[in-house]
Each structure stands twice: as structure tokens, then as C-alpha cells.
Amino acid sequence: MRRHDKEIKDEAVIRKILEESGLCRLGFVDNGEAYIVPVNYACEGMTIYFHSAPAGRKIELMKKNNRISFEIEHTAEIITGELPCSWTARYRSVMGRGIISIETDPVLKKQGLDLIMRKYGAEMELNYDENVFSRMIIIKLEIQSLTGKQSGIW
Q1: Residue 120 carries which DSSP code?
Q2: Of 29, 62, 89, 106, which is the most buried if we count CB atoms within 10 A?
Q3: At residue 2, does pLDDT exceed 80?
Q4: DSSP H/E element including 133
Q5: Average pLDDT score over residue span 105-110
């Protein structure tokens, strides 16, 4: 990281960003070009879980190369100034790299989906329609590297 003064070194702050943010962006490489897809997710330890249809561009890219990058933005706002070049931003985010795979164990698949549902506010008993559950996949991203960055007063 070029701006070490913006690096988040507090593991508790990084964990808060991972747990409280609403969206994760996954970065793939497709024929030498970047492909980014936003996903709903949940994080437990150093693993990020998200759900998906079993087919599509993301799945095809995953099969070609299971090493991906990701970004999770916690807070962002533009701070305006008197002059155009005096504007700035206030934000917190994490970025990282990891290995992505499809969870095939039905028990672990349900646990991953439960984590996602609870994160977004599900309070009811989580019993899934087997027809729907069998058509979806749970993907796990094992985090290999992670950095946090922030700007503004926190």
C-alpha cells in the first residue's frame, strides 16, 4: 500500500468491515480483461460465503481460475470543498485475494446459506424449500491476503 497512513492495522476494524458491509465485489480475469461482480455475502473467520445459480459467467470463470480478488466497502461519502480540487472522500474498505470453490457438503452448504440469511436479518427458523435449495450453490472464498484502507476522520 503506497499510503501507509491510510492503512487499517486494527484487526477489530477490519473484522467490523467484513461483518457489517452489505456487498462484496468479486474480481475475476476473463480473457485478459477484468470482470467484477457484486454479491451478497457473509463472513466467518477467514472465509466468505455467497450463493449463486449453478451456471453463468462467474461460475465459468471460477472453473478456469479459482484465484480471485475481492473488495468490500463499508462506508463512503464525498466531502465537498470550496474548490474542485479540495474535495475528498471518507471511506473504509478491505481488499484481498483468495481461493474460491463450490461447497458440496449439504450440511456445510446449509450453514453457509444460514450465515448469509442471518446477516441480512432473517430471524425465523431457516428451513429451505428443497427444490430451491438444490438448484442453488454456495461458494466459499478462503481469504489468503487482506488489507484495510480508510480515509477521513474516524
Answers
A1: T
A2: 62
A3: no
A4: helix 130-135
A5: 92
